[in-house]
């Protein structure tokens, strides 16, 4: 059993490091481990606490924070450990409410004298050499000028204090915490993503904006849903931006105070500007504070920083950069109009509806404590936070503070809290106009623009597989499963979205208000959302009621605005968009899944890439057919290259989703009454007319295999090529074995050991380890995977070849 003086602190931001530092000073022999996904001294970190600089002020209308901030500032001003990081520049706060008076009164109530005053606007404008004379004073009542406030070099300070805590005996572990350890409901430590466990008597979560997501995982692992944060904590993001001042501007602004534009709770959050750092970089934060609602587990949606490593904190959309332009303008007007705002970052913090911290035992599990929720104002308390957190751990926190910072407490309506995240990241993630126009300019607005933006950023690999189990020909895999959306749909659907966005940019009066709508059970919807989000637009996907929860979760994970379940087929979902959603949304644009020239143009790039990667034409291309968008793109490009006489194309379907094959048999396009194949991505009841037309060409062979054979193909790819693919791809694999390909092509082409056969691994998201294992289990006992491929019974297509 862990010693009573053992502590695991997850999160090395100011809450965690301050706690570790105060604990080791109080209990030099205690066993204290700080765990964070990032090294404490790496160049940049995801922590809100890591930054170039942060405001250190005691200008609070809430007397509790005013008192605590003065206590903290005193440390910054007098303690040798903290002094090197603090700059007492003063603060200049344009107040649109009674804030200035409230702060002045709080100082009085606390018996604290400081050089602070509520100054009339005309007088204030002249201060600091008139730096703020051109600011926007609309609605401003008076300006709070507090010469005792200032700022600190936040990142340097965080590293310095962490180093000091380590010197005193704290341990630091760099690891991603995946869950907690439980013993009879009590939390006894943590479990890392690598499966390592650490135990301690106290486990403290100082995990900032990541807290709700982590608690969802812990709830799932333990079955204790009361662990979830629910509405207690919301992750919110904000944009910061910097400019490097020229020589002359630096001379003027070097000794500026911190600037704040304060608004009322109804108008929005206060925005700020920090004095230049040693590198002459002057910083702003913007006014848009946003959530990022994400399905972190099936059916569990919480706001969380985006899941990319490092959450893409440096990828800031044009719209959010405008937020910083706006901040620049309302502080300095024409003085700063020539400054280039080059460095931008999105930073996430944890919010409560009252803007109060949570420093509390977790009420759902003994041994677990939470200390976080800086609400965009927690950094300045760094020197003293740990003292309060230790009081909480030891049950000696003043009752007023226990109540204020409790896990379970009254939560006021967030409308009284100006900084509450009021936007959703998806809705304001608009980066399209510039990104698109630059790309289009560079690429002459041709279809390669799609690749630049949407596909080619993933270097697609074409791999020669010469393993013994593949007979005769050289087989290449065109890995479109590595496309950003997980399937080839990024090519066609991506191009369609790009072209519509381009039209809106050039033709619409309001280019930014565009909303894309797709009907899909999975891959096309995911590709649509990915393309729309890449270009900065929202997207809604309507899925049939039969859509799998796992696919819906993947659409959510891509950042969709809304998923609507409607109808029993994709066709019905599509009708709902066309007849109900689009008429109600003037900004709406419908994205067809396969039957459009722009989609074929996008898909044609697969042959362009194959040609350049092989340095030659292939002999055979094997591709799956759902609605036919991929086949159309391939055939179109073969025509363009005048290769249709030389390249054979196998059009693969599964039985029960074989709308092409049945149309060919019928001599006209038919509509399947329903889809009975498990390969739902191929489950289109009626192919495009163009597909039917192409499929009758002599170089096309239609092949239909069973779901079972497609599943065997998936298992073979997993086993031999270490690749997880859905049935849509698995159906292509059997042609590589046992002379099957030659039997299919018969006299159309002789396959030799030099023939180049390309399987388009078109990807797909409908696959999991569980599915593969279930298919594998079904095969074990009856026949081996290898043997089974010899007994394939294909119905072979238009030209009457039989296997
Ligand atoms: C743009 C911006 C400007 C701000 N300006 C100011 C200011 O001027 N003055 C001020 O006082 N305050 C300011 N704040 C607020 C302040 O920065 C935060 O309130 C404070 O830093 C939060 O500290 P924290 O320790 O709770 O979280 P963080 O600093 O975010 O630390 C959380 C840590 O937990 C780690 N972590 C999370 N989950 C896991 C996991 N599963 N496994 C391992 N590690 C994990 C993270 O890597 C991170 O290091 C600002 C905040 C932002 C975003």
From TrEMBL:
EC number: 4.3.1.17
Classification via Pfam families: DAO, PALP
Subcellular location as annotated: Cytoplasm
Domain Tryptophan synthase beta chain-like PALP, chain residue ranges per copy: 464-763
Catalytic activity entry: L-serine = pyruvate + NH4(+)
Listed cofactors: pyridoxal 5'-phosphate
Name this protein carries in UniProt: L-serine ammonia-lyase
